[in-house]
Specification:
Radius of gyration: 55 Å
Strand content: 15-25%
CATH class of the largest domain: Alpha Beta
Structural class: alpha/beta
CATH architecture of the largest domain: Alpha-Beta Barrel
Number of strands: 21
Number of domains: 3
Number of helices: 21
Shape: elongated
Strand order of the largest sheet: 13-14-16-17-18-19-20-21
CATH topology of the largest domain: TIM Barrel
Distance between the termini: 72 Å
Helix content: 40-55%
Length: 722
């Protein structure tokens, strides 16, 4: 690749332009000077030539009367006064040379007047000018004129009162030829013009030098600004632009200062949004992981131990269900403030997500970590949290994981990072311990102990994380499509998009890899991958089946950063899809747990035409108040109520109640896990709108098969049922 040409400086560009313009003007001026001077001199010399030839005629008239020597002397004296005159020839009327006077040694080198030229001169007597000029012998200029003699022929000589009344007659008696050399004038003119040109060029060079100095001083503030602009280009926003006495440069500096301040404000705002949770003010999940990585490296170098405490609120969803999301936000903010009061100044504290908090305490052993965990439990339990005059318990479960560093004298101490666990592994340890605390009755703390079972679970989590990252980068994820049948006419115009992870010949299902994706913060990337690729496949399919629609599952991570609506709208435009072709499925837990983040984005997407479905309804928090507030169009009844629907009256009652409630609310119902004809017949009798399950159709791995698939599915018989 060719290297870019170096850019010219502003001073050089202006000076080159100035020099080019000055040179052009100088050339024109010198040319005009030469032309005008030459024209004036030539014109003046021509006038002198006419005058000289006239005087030569007068001085030479004696040659045609007598041979007075005084005439010769007078002619010689006259010629000596004018060195321009090279020679003078006099001819008689027949063209014979009767006299030649010359200032050069060999005037005969110049040809005599020919007969035709003599006739021309004779005819020119009547012309007022009466001369002929020949320029063909450059540098010699030859001018010729007839010599005439005038005689009075009038008879009334004595009676005439003036010469005008006398009649006269002119007779050509000969010719005079004058040779002139103007080369001396040309040399003088050339010398003068050359000297003038040299003076002009010198003046231009002096002006150029003065202009360069003046221009450099004028634009020096701009040159001084170059270094600061380069620093800005490399990301240094703490640059201070120098001031200038020039109004324009000062205006540029002020504008740059204003722009820098705006950028600094924006960066501070974006950094705060990225690094700190807006609700609690604690470090965000990603920022906490960055800080934790630095702290673990420091502990490893110093040979210190630290403890990570994973805190998860107990029954926090009950607060949201009972008092609303605003109450939940207020409680989380109070918990964060209480944690700030408990921890030390140097401890790391962050909100990991939802109602989960993380704390890293450095320079502490196992007993000290257990004591900190017990203090957290006691402080949060003894001081109730208050919302709208109501006291609420803030019980929580804690998981503690120790981070071991290289001790003194061991390899790695004194500068090399030898921490046993990575931040992700330490989080997984504490999370596992927290789940153990919840399984043992909640409101307690458990410490992670690296036995074989725990190590295997952590190893599995890390392996799934690595597999998922590789799949996202290398195309290891793929989409399958399960038909959803409309029960009123047995048609399938609606498919649920299911994500799978393929590694070689192995195909993994979401319950195997998505938990690791959630724990390691990869879920948002997975959600966006599914949306983008599902939209691309739907665009291909709708060109063949224009009325087909896709249901796409999204998790709470998709709502976390508030950009889901904008992302979906941009992908709809990119893949040329109508919003009405897309249904997003969210679980009860996501809808309730991320209500404040999810609701504005759901409303925005609904306004452009997208629809929403509540998935796995009936197994989560079953909050009818949330169902009434959520702008969803479909309720997907969890398969736990459908699998044994034909033999379990309780399940039948629950499904009928859900169908009745949905009908009253104007929402459509979808029954999952329809595995046989009897179940299909029963949900149709209950009034369910759509069915989904292996009896209706298994997930299809190739989008091309959806184009060939029958839109009307024939009912299959099992026993006597239809």
């Amino acid at each position: 690749m060719a290297e870019p040409k170096p850019k010219r400086t502003l001073v050089r560009a202006v000076l080159v332009s100035q020099l080019a313009f000055a040179a052009l003007v100088g050339v024109i001026a010198i040319g005009c000077l030469w032309w005008v001077s030459n024209w004036v001199v030539r014109d003046n010399l021509d006038d002198w030539a006419i005058r000289w030839v006239g005087e030569m005629e007068s001085l030479g008239s004696g040659f045609y009367v007598d041979t007075n020597d005084e005439r010769f002397l007078e002619l010689e004296r006259y010629l000596s006064r004018f060195p321009e005159i090279q020679y003078v020839r006099y001819y008689d009327v027949d063209g014979e040379v009767i006299y030649l006077e010359s200032g050069v040694e060999t005037p005969s080198m110049y040809p005599q007047l020919a007969a035709a030229e003599l006739e021309t001169l004779s005819a020119a007597v009547a012309d007022p000018e009466g001369y002929v000029m020949d320029l063909t012998l450059e540098p010699l200029v030859r001018i010729s004129q007839a010599v005439e003699r005038e005689s009075i022929i009038s008879a009334n000589l004595f009676s005439a009162r003036s010469l005008d009344e006398l009649e006269s007659e002119s007779t050509v008696v000969g010719f005079v030829e004058l040779g002139l050399d103007y080369s001396a004038y040309d040399r003088d003119l050339l010398s003068g013009v050359s000297a003038g040109s040299a003076f002009i060029i010198l003046a231009f060079l002096l002006l150029l030098l003065a202009g360069r100095i003046a221009l450099r001083r004028a634009v020096q503030p701009l040159a001084d600004m170059q270094e600061h602009l380069e620093r800005i280009a490399h990301g240094d926003l703490e640059v201070r632009i120098p001031t200038s006495s020039h109004r324009e440069i000062s205006a540029i500096g002020e504008a740059l200062e204003t722009a820098l301040e705006k950028i600094r404000e924006r960066d501070r705002h974006l950094t705060k949004l990225a690094n700190f949770d807006p609700l609690t003010g604690l470090a965000s999940r990603y920022h906490f992981m960055e800080l934790l990585s630095e702290r673990l490296s420091h502990c490893a170098r110093q040979g210190d131990s630290g403890a990570l405490i994973f805190l998860d609120m107990d029954q926090f969803k009950h607060v949201n269900d009972t008092y609303g999301h605003q109450a939940g936000d207020e409680i989380l903010a109070q918990v964060a403030e209480r944690l700030r009061q408990v921890v030390r100044r140097d401890d790391l504290l962050g909100r990991f997500g939802g109602d989960e908090f993380v704390l890293f305490v450095g320079d502490i052993d196992e007993l000290g970590a257990d004591a900190v965990a017990e203090k957290l439990l006691r402080d949060l339990g003894e001081f109730p949290l208050v919302y709208d005059g109501v006291s609420l318990n803030a019980n929580c479960s804690l998981g503690v994981a120790m981070s071991e560093g290289a001790s003194e004298g061991e390899p790695g101490a004194g500068g090399e990072d030898t921490s046993i666990y990575s931040p992700e592994e330490l989080i997984s340890h504490a999370d596992l311990a927290c789940r153990l605390a919840k399984s043992q009755g909640r409101n307690r703390a458990c410490r992670y102990r690296p036995d074989a079972k725990h190590m295997e679970a952590i190893k599995s989590d890390v392996q799934w994380q690595q597999k998922l990252k590789a799949a996202l980068k290398q195309g290891g994820l793929e989409l399958h499509y399960q038909p959803i049948m409309q029960l009123s006419n047995n048609t399938v115009m609606h498919y649920e998009v299911l994500v799978r992870l393929r590694e070689g010949d192995e195909l993994y299902f979401p319950n195997q890899f998505l938990p690791a994706a959630i724990r390691f913060g990869l879920m948002l990337e997975v959600d966006r991958w599914v949306i983008d690729h599902a939209f691309m496949q739907l665009n291909w399919l709708r060109r063949r089946r224009p009325d087909v629609r896709f249901s796409i599952n999204i998790t709470g991570s998709a709502f976390a950063d508030g950009s889901l609506a904008n992302y979906v709208k941009s992908k709809l435009r990119e893949h040329d899809l109508p919003a009405a072709a897309v249904i997003f499925e969210i679980t009860e837990q996501v809808a309730v747990g991320s209500f404040s983040e999810a609701l504005p984005q759901i409303l925005e997407l609904k306004s452009v035409g997208c629809e929403f479905a509540v998935d796995d309804f009936g197994t989560g928090y079953s909050s009818l108040s949330y169902l009434k507030r959520l702008p969803v169009h479909y309720i997907k009844i969890d398969g736990a109520f459908i699998r044994r629907l034909t033999v379990n009256r309780t399940d039948q009652t629950i499904v009928r109640a859900i169908a009745d409630i949905a009908r009253i609310m104007g929402k459509r119902t979808i029954a999952e896990f329809v595995g046989d004809a009897e179940t299909l017949k029963l949900i149709r009798e209950i009034g369910i709108d759509y069915g989904q399950g292996f009896h209706i159709g298994k997930p299809i791995s190739k989008i091309e098969d959806l184009d060939d698939r029958q839109r009307v599915i024939p009912l299959r018989r099992t026993g006597s049922s239809t």
